Structures are given as structure tokens and as C-alpha cells.
Amino acid sequence: MGGSCQRFAQRTFKTCRVCVRIFSVVVFLLIFLFVFLRTYGVPGFVLKEVVRQVNSKGIPVDVERVRLTLRGWRAENMRYYSKHPDDLEPMFFAQNVLFERLILFDEAESGDWVFEVEADSIAIAPSVEWGVDIPEASPFRTVEGVRLTLGFHDGRVRLSDGELSWIGGRFKVDGTVLTQAPPQKEAVVRPPEPAPKETAPPVWISREQFVAFENHLKAFKVNGAAEVALEFVVDSGNLAASHLSLDARAVDIVYRGVGFSGLELKGEFRYPAIDAQRIELRLDNRSLVVAGRYDFASGLVEGTMENTIVSTQPLLLLPQPVLDVLVKAQLQFESLPCFSLAFGPAKPKGLLNAVGGSFLVEEVNYRELEIDRLEGNLTRRNDRLDLTALSGTVLGQREKAEQYGSCMQGGSATGSVFWDAAANEFGVSATGSFDPNLLIRPLDMVPIATNVIDRFKFADRPPQISLELGSNLADWSTFYIDVQAMANDAAIHGVRFSSVNTFAAYKNKVLRLDPIAAMQGVDFLKGSTSIDFGNHTVAFDAFGSMPPAVIEDVAYPGFEVFGNKILCGGNTQIRARGKLDWKTMRATDFSAEVEADVLEIPVARLERFKATVMGKGPRILVKNAGFNLYGGEGSGTFSIQLDPATNTMPYTLETRLGGVDFRSFLSYLRPEVEYTVSGNLKANAAISADMKRGFFEAANGKGRVEVKDGQLADLRFFSGFSRLMRNVFSSFSVFSITKLSGGFELKNGVVSSDDAYFSGDFMNAKAKGTYSNRTGFDVLLHTQVFSD
Q1: CA distances from 759 to 67, 659, 720, 736, 742 (A)
Q2: CB of 751 within 8 A of CB of 744?
Q3: E strands within 308-351?
Q4: Which residues fall within 8 angstroms of residue 113, CB to CB, at 6 or more apart?
Q5: Which residues are paired to 420 by β-bridges?
Q6: pTM above 0.90?
Q7: Which of 183, 376, 672, 681 could make an S-S bridge to 390, C-beta 3.0–4.6 Å?
Q8: Cβ neighbours of residue 679 closer than 8 Å, sequence gap 6 or more
Q9: Beta partners for residue 341, in sequence order
Q10: Which of 84, 85, 90, 88 has its CA nearest to residue 62?
Q11: How far apart are CA 90 and CA 132, in angstroms?
Q12: Alpha carbon of 11 to those of 17, 18, 20, 22, 23: distances in Å?
């Protein structure tokens, strides 16, 4: 029994010793293998076989050496190649890739290998199939801090749970690379010839374009947390089937010096299009949201943009060409406009030519015209831009009221604007209650427009106005402007009216006021006028109770006859129709019926005047005139020659007078002289003179005068004779002349008479002689004293 136990113990000891030796050998071999694999790596022939098997599965990968570490297998100088024959560099290159764990799932059947992979950096060389020329020094060509699960499956490579550092941000990656099409089951019937694969055409992005993109990206700075997630499927055999999705979020970012509280970006690439599903910048609970799509096949872009951010700083993000245009146009925004716009579809370079939507601007300033809360719709199609359904408040500029001679008050307005770049045309329409003189400064590059607007002034409050204007910028002769206005206390061409209702239109060098209805207290004016600046004519058709000077100033203020040489006063009634040629007077043709309580002409003040006024060429004729004159009556005709080519204004007057107060008549002719004479005047005369010269200097004509029941001794004509008679007859302390008659002739400033006769209480006389302001009297008298 004892021997049996001893033999068992010996055998057990030998067995254990053998096991220990075997275990020691195994441990030694494992240690040796570990040291060998760590020092020298996987033997070359083994590595080549593994690489061959991987390549046979459609994965173009190469590895120089694989070593074993305490954490797992480390592959050195690992390269992933493109299948395109023009690609000479590996698309992806990593100096060290750590496979922390190798998981084999039924390798004999499926050949699935799954690794947990870590790499310090991966260099990227874009394939020519990508169509992107990335500069060698670009940070886009280096991925750092890669950690992911990499699965090699039959026909595909799967990346999951990936995390990497790229272009300064942290990315989460999940995706698949299809290396070859899965095997197809053999069909019983022979299939038709396969259609050619759809392959993506090159999307060429030049090196310069990519550098510009990088520079734009450098303007972004993320101060807070950021998270980016990428999901993709890449079919290396059919890029048209590839797709990529991106979901990024960041807080506290700065772009080109402008801070935002957050950024969200969601997008997808699925051939043939890139979809930016949402790009959102947030600031103070408001946002700028962009969505868009670019189709590589058609080359068209379309998208939307919506902004609710109200701040000044985002204006700095506008492209520099846009900022340059705003500065050149003197257009200023106090904050970024709110808008909702849709773009495209259009080619990228023509994207701004296919825009539509709505906008709201809190404050805008255009060449000193300030508009508060301007909103409307915007449409841009090809070369035409339309701003429609505009509404806003035009701010007043009362501090400039004295400068412009108008109230300069603002008010609400609606309207539209268009600009056609191809035709080089623009148009503006506006309706509201504001002083149109506020538009003079914004339109000062259009002198025609400011000339029309400057004709209308408003004293206390703005008019109700409807305005349209436009032109071809290459041909300002096409300029037009239409103004419909209703106002109180307004002025047209400097003439004040208590109320005005008019439609003014300018086109082809013609300004029309049709109709015009105006009031001056109880006086009124109705009618129309048309000023042709090209032909220098004005056509008019008007009637009313206002003085002719008012009608003249409204029709054409440069024509200074009424209100200057001829004055009307009191109640006036006038009806005028025709045309006036203010440049040559040759095309003048008009007629008018005039009634006035008072009409002042250079030689008399007429009352209860009534006449017909006609113009034919440069000759203006007043005929069938009837009037009262200083207690008497008169009639006659008046003709004046208006020739702008000369510095003269000759006229003729034919008149018949009776019962006229002689003293009043003389006092009107020489208001500086205080007359003591009196008498009852009866006369007829045909006189010609010139309104541009003194009456006696230019007057020519003839007539006959008779004064009865008067006191004429103190007339300058009789003053010398009166002194002579007192010296001869010293007893005549009182000398009187009560009657005067005779014919006269005016010629070259000299008044002459051959049959003058005067008489008094004690004598009568006949006279023959002349008188002029220069030489005085030269008279021959034949006197008879104490005659009957």
C-alpha cells in the first residue's frame, strides 16, 4: 500500500514537472513571441499574406510593419489608396495606427474583422475623383486624434463610434465605405446588357477657390462648446451612390469679429446634390437661418434665408462688394434687415438674379432721406429688381424748412420701386402724406426731377400725394414724373393758394398740370397748363376769379407782364385758352376774356375794366376794352409787342375818355408832384411807347384834349404865363384859367400843339409851341384880355 502511494506520488511529481516545464516553455515562447513581435513586428511573409487577403476583398490598403504593443497591434506607415489610375499618392496615410482589439466573427464564413482603432494623425491626399485641389499646407489635409471602431466586412468597410480632431474641431463619425458590389445570384434567364454606371462628374474646386474658402473659415472662432457629427456612405465603385450627412452645433462663436450665441448646421450630400438643410446663427433669442441645395448635375442652386436678428454688427458680415455699393449709393441701415427670402434655382454666379421674398428695415437713410420701419416684398429676376408693397414712415426735416421754403414734414407712405439693369431703367411710385421736397436731396442727381418738385411748396402741413417717376439712365430725355397732390396753404411757382388739388406730369420735356384747382380765399382757379421745355411753349386753358398775374405765374413764371407792368386788383374774372411761346413769341396764339375791378397800366388806373385779350405771335392785343377812369368812362384798344430777342416792349394805346377827373389823372402820371389843378377831362389819343423806357422818352402819337370847369393856372404850362400877366397887370392878384382844349402830338419825347386854346374869367388865349423834359416850354401866345 505504501509502495503504491509512493509510485503515485512519483508519477504525479513527474507529470507536474513536465507540465511546469511545458508551461515554462509556452510562457517563454509567448514572451519570446511578444518580444519578437514588439521588436521586429509581424514577419514580412505573414504580413504580406494578410494584406493580400485584405486587398482581395476590395480594400486597397498597404502596411509596412505591424508590431505588437501592450495595448494592441500597431500598424506603421499604413496607406489607403484610390482605385483611380491618376492618383499617385495614397488617399489616407497614417504613420501609426493602433488596433486595440481584434474581434473575429466566424471568419471562415464571413471574413468579418472588427478593430478598435486609434491614430495620432492621418494625412489626406484628395483623389482626382473628388475634384478638389487642396493645398499641401492646408489643415484640411491632416486629421488628428482619431479613435473609432473599424470593421472590414465583405464588400464594405464600416466606421463607427468615431471621434477625431480635424480643422480645430471635434468630430463624431459614423459611416461605411463600399469597396465592391455584393455578389449577385446567377439568373436562369440571361440578363440584358448592363447599363453603364452613373458616375459623378468632377466638381472642380481650384486651389485658389479652396484657399478662399479656408480664409473664410478662419474668420470663425468658437469660444464655447462645439460638437460635429458625420455620417457617410462612400461607394468607391459608384460615387453617384455615395452620401454624407453633417450635424454641427456650437455656442459662443465669433465670425469676422461679430459675436453670436450659437450655431447649428445640418447638411447632406447625396449625389447629385448637396443639401444645406439648416444653417442657423443665433443672437439674443433671434436667428439667421439659411437652407439651400446645389445640384451638381444641373449646376443650379436654390435655397431660403430668413433673418430675425435686429443688430448693427451683422451688417459687417455683408460681402465687401455689397458694402461698397451701399457706400457709393449713400444707403445706410441702422441694423440688419429682417427678411424671408427664397433664392434660385440659378447658377451660383447668377444666384442673386433669382431672389424673392419680404423684408423689414427698422431705419434706413438714403442721401439724407430717413425712413422708419420700411417693409415690403423683393423680387429679382435676371436683370430686373422689383420692390413692391412698400410701406414706411418718411421722417420730417423741419430744420431745413427755411432752406427749401416748405414745411419739410414727413408722414406715412406706400409704394414700389423697380430697376432693370439690362434696359438701364428705373421707376418709383409712392403714395402717402409727406412733403415731396424731402425728395430733392435724394434725387439731386436727376435735375429734371428736382426742378419739377421744387415748383411746389407747402407751408404748414404736407399734402396728400401720389407720385411716380422713372427714366432710362443712359438717356435722361426719357425721364418722367407724375404727381397727384391735394394740399392746404400751398404754393405753385411761388404763388400761394389756400388749397390746391392738381395732377402734375412730366415726360419728354413737357410738364402738364392737368387738372389744377386752386383757391385763394374766395377766389378760385380751375383749368390746365402744359409747359413744353423743348419747344419753349406753354399751353393753357383756365378760368377763375384770380388775377391774371396768378394765372401767368402758374402757367409760366418767367413771363413777367401781368403783376409787373400790368396790375389787377379787386374782383377779377378771367377765361383764357391758347398757347404762349416764351422764347420767340412766334408760336403764341391765345385769347382771353378779362374782367377786373381795377387794372393798372403805365399811363392810368382803370376801374371796372372789361376786355378781350388776344395773342398772335409776339403781338398781344387788348380790344373792346371798356372801363371807368377817375370818375369818367373810357374805351379803347391796347397792343403790346413782346419780342424776347430784343430789350424792348413797345406798345400802342388808342383810347377815348370822357368825364375824367383831370387832377387824378395827372397825379397818377406824376405821383411825386402835388397838383392843385382841377377840371373835367375829355380826350382821345393814339399813342405808342415802350414799357422798358420812360413814358415821355419813348412816347409818340397824337390826340385831342379838352378840359372844362377847371382851375388850370397852376399847371406848369401856365405858370410862366401867369407870372407874366401879374407883372403886366399888377391889379391881377388872382389869375385863373378854367378851360383848355387843343390837339397835340408826341414825337421823340416832345409834345407839340398848333391849336391850343385856353380861357379864364378875364382873358383867353391861343397857343402854339412845344414842351419837353429837357428844354421845357417854347410857346407862342396870342392873348386877349377882357373879351367875351
Answers
A1: 154, 19, 16, 8, 12
A2: yes
A3: 331-333, 338-346
A4: 102, 103, 104, 107, 151, 152
A5: 384, 425
A6: no
A7: 376
A8: 662, 663, 707, 708, 709, 710, 711, 712, 738, 740
A9: 305, 357
A10: 90
A11: 15
A12: 10, 10, 14, 16, 18
Q: Find all residues with CB under 8 Å of 434, minimum gap 6, and list them.
A: 394, 396, 409, 410, 411, 412, 413, 462, 465
- Residue 657 CA, distance from chain mean position: 66
With CA atoms as reference, report the closest residue to 359 among 280, 278, 417.
417
Please give the angle made by the CA atoms of 724, 730 and 731, to the nearest 5 degrees. 130
3 state SS of 52: helix
Please return the burial class of 136, using the count of CB atoms within 10 Å of its CB with bins 0-12, 13-18 and 19+: exposed
Q: DSSP 3-state assignment of 203?
A: coil
Question: What's the average pLDDT block by block, 10 residues per block, for the chain (788 residues)?
Answer: 66 73 72 69 81 79 84 83 79 84 51 77 80 80 84 78 80 80 45 47 66 77 83 75 85 83 88 86 88 87 90 71 70 83 87 88 86 90 90 89 88 90 88 87 80 83 86 84 85 81 85 85 85 86 79 61 67 87 87 86 81 90 88 88 82 88 78 78 88 78 86 62 55 63 85 83 78 76 65
For the chain, how long is the longest CA-to-CA vector?
Answer: 213
State whether residue 282 is helix, strand or coil. Answer: strand
Question: Bridge-partner residues for 343, per DSSP?
Answer: 303, 355
Residue 384 is placed in which grid cell? Answer: 430686373
Q: Indicate the SS3 state at residue 56.
A: helix
Residues with Cβ < 8 Å from 563, sequence gap 6 or more? 547, 548, 549, 552, 553
Residue type, 690: D
Look-up: residue for cell 401856365? Answer: 718
